[in-house]
Q: What sequence folds into this?
């Protein structure tokens, strides 16, 4: 028998719901974390050759780990606050809290501790500018988006999308120690990419959002307005992805890839506008592919440029 | 019957608490190592 005394009469079935490590990992939204790590890494890598006294690469990797931890903490706090509405939606009802695998109080403690840890690790490994920005990102996602915007305005994901756009800026700071124009361009790309991506998902899962009374654009203003907005944001996104080439941060190689991707994005946006069958899910999946390839191309372009520079 | 069930919960409670404590210990050790490396790298003694 363990030495620490516990009043065994007070032990109930709920006390045993401590959750497995896998449940806690799921609580951190690992898919979102992987996207955050990827975009932060691109922010880091695209800035590496810019300064001579760059931050130690191992410290930078620890910094990116801290960003991932911070993103996971935001996911935990988001799931803690949204546990009531998660239970009402098919897409989210199996998450660790609504399914009873993790207790809400445990999740809240875990989220707060992980948030503080991620900020401290980033502050100590990189600098306190990066740590402050990570703290602001966690606050923006957990409080501004989750508590203030998500349940109160149809523009929730437009403003809240900024939270997902901060990681490349923090990644850039991990490389240079300061905020640069390259990072702001990556921020803009993710910021404008978010509305078409999430509104396409909202069109697919409309009944879910309606059941949970979340004021997503299709619920409040209808399908047609959402389709028009997806198209408008897609048009706004298209020129922005050329900014890295226009400002000489990437070569023509990147511009060619972006052009091919843009043509397909616009084609799918037009399909959404025409309300073609399956166009919503098609754009949602394609938008993930689109962002991944754009960011990978920025890295690849840098890689080629570095190789050419070394050869010369 | 109810007592048997309660004993089962108590047994599970201690098992779960033990694994949770080990997990926390693992995290603390990881953080100690991490902060050690951060300190060394920030001192820039590697060259």
A:
């Amino acid at each position: 028998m363990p030495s620490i005394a516990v009043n065994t009469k007070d032990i109930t079935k709920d006390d045993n719901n401590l959750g497995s490590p896998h449940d806690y990992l799921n609580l951190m939204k690992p898919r979102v974390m992987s996207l955050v790590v990827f975009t932060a890494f691109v922010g880091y890598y695209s800035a590496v050759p810019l300064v001579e006294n760059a931050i130690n690469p191992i410290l930078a990797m620890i910094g990116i780990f801290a960003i991932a931890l911070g993103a996971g903490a935001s996911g935990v706090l988001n799931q803690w606050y949204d546990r009531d509405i998660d239970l009402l939606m098919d897409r989210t009802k199996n998450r660790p809290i609504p399914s009873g695998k993790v207790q809400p109080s445990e999740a809240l403690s875990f989220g707060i501790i992980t948030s503080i840890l991620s900020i401290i690790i980033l502050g100590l490994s990189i600098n306190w500018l990066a740590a402050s920005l990570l703290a602001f990102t966690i606050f923006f996602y957990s409080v501004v988006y989750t508590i203030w915007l998500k349940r109160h305005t149809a523009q929730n994901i437009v403003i809240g999308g900024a939270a997902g756009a901060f990681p490349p800026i923090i990644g850039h700071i991990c490389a240079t120690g300061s905020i640069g124009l390259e990072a702001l361009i990556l921020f803009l790309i993710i910021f404008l990419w978010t509305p078409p991506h999430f509104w396409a998902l909202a069109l697919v899962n409309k009944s879910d959002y309606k059941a949970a009374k979340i004021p997503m654009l299709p619920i409040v203003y209808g399908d047609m307005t959402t389709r028009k907005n997806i198209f408008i944001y897609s048009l706004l996104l298209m020129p922005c992805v050329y900014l890295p080439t226009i400002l000489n941060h990437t070569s023509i190689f990147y511009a060619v890839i972006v052009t091919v991707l843009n043509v397909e994005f616009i084609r799918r946006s037009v399909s959404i506008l025409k309300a073609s069958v399956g166009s919503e899910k098609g754009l949602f999946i394609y938008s993930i592919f689109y962002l991944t390839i754009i960011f990978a191309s920025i890295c690849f372009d840098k890689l080629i440029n570095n190789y050419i520079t070394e050869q010369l | 019957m109810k007592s048997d069930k309660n004993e089962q919960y108590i047994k599970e409670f201690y098992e779960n608490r033990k694994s949770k404590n080990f997990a926390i210990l693992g995290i603390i050790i990881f953080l100690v190592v991490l902060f050690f490396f951060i300190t060394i790298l920030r001192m820039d003694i590697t060259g």
Summary: DSSP finds one helix and no strands in chain B.
